[in-house]
Amino acid sequence: MYHKQIIPYLFLLPLTLLLTACSTSPQYYTPTNEQVQEFLQIHKIEPLTIRDVGEFSTVVLVQTDLSNAYYVLHSTESGEVEHSYLGSNNNAKSVPVSVLNGVIDLNFVSLIINDDELFEAAERVDILFQSGRKVTEEVKSRGVIVPSKLKGIDGEYMEIEIYDKNNQLLKKIGR
């Protein structure tokens, strides 16, 4: 009689293990350069800049006539590239620098230097985060992506400073 009660549970154990193994969340990886380039070509995207951020993501910063935006790309175990998109109205005509904050899981700040004179003179960007940590990034293009900590959260940016090659402050953006 006792065996009759145990036998159904013995069948449930392998079934439970199988279902648990099949229901795990997908594993993501940083896309390869080839995967990123293929994504850009398929979607006809002209990036301002591209940067790996976090443990398994690549951020592509773009600006069109209508929007400032970024794509966050991930590669799956099967090699497919998945993406998310965040955009806002293009405010290039009204502000010298457009700022987009990263998503909560990927703490980063991206900015687009809209003003031609500011861009030509800019050498580096310093970003002060809520945690008190300051990150410096060289300006190589109109788009700049500055990652925060990979582990833990620095919080949102508190201040952005753009400097020229002589270490002169060109622009300060605060909260």
At a glance:
By secondary structure, the chain is an alpha+beta fold. Helix content is 21%, strand content 43%.
Account of the 3D structure:
The protein has 175 residues and is an alpha+beta fold. The chain has one domain (28-174). It has 3 helices and 12 strands; from the N terminus they run H-E-H-E-E-E-E-E-E-H-E-E-E-E-E. The chain has helices spanning 2-22, 33-42, 116-121, and strands spanning 28-29, 47-53, 57-63, 67-76, 81-89, 97-101, 108-113, 124-129, 134-138, 143-147, 157-163, 169-174. The strands form 3 sheets. Strands 1, 2, 3, 4 and 5 form a 5-stranded antiparallel β-sheet that branches. Strands 9-8-11-12 form a 4-stranded antiparallel β-sheet, with no helix packed on it. Strand 3 and strand 4 (67-76) form a beta hairpin. The protein is globular, with a radius of gyration of 22 Å. The model is unreliable at 7-21 (pLDDT under 50).
Order of helices and strands: HEHEEEEEEHEEEEE
- Overall number of strands: 12
Anisotropy-based shape: globular
Fraction in beta strands: 35-45%
Assign the structural class, choosing from mainly alpha, mainly beta, alpha/beta, alpha+beta, or little secondary structure. Answer: alpha+beta
Instruction: Give the rounded overall mean pLDDT.
Output: 83
What is the overall number of helices?
A: 3
Tell me the major beta sheet. 5 strands, antiparallel
Radius of gyration: 22 Å
How many domains make up the 3D coordinates?
A: 1
Termini separation (Å)? 72 Å
- Percentage of helical residues? 10-25%
Low-confidence runs: 7-21
Organism: Alkalihalobacterium chitinilyticum
Protein name: DUF5067 domain-containing protein
Keywords: Signal
Signal peptide: 1-28
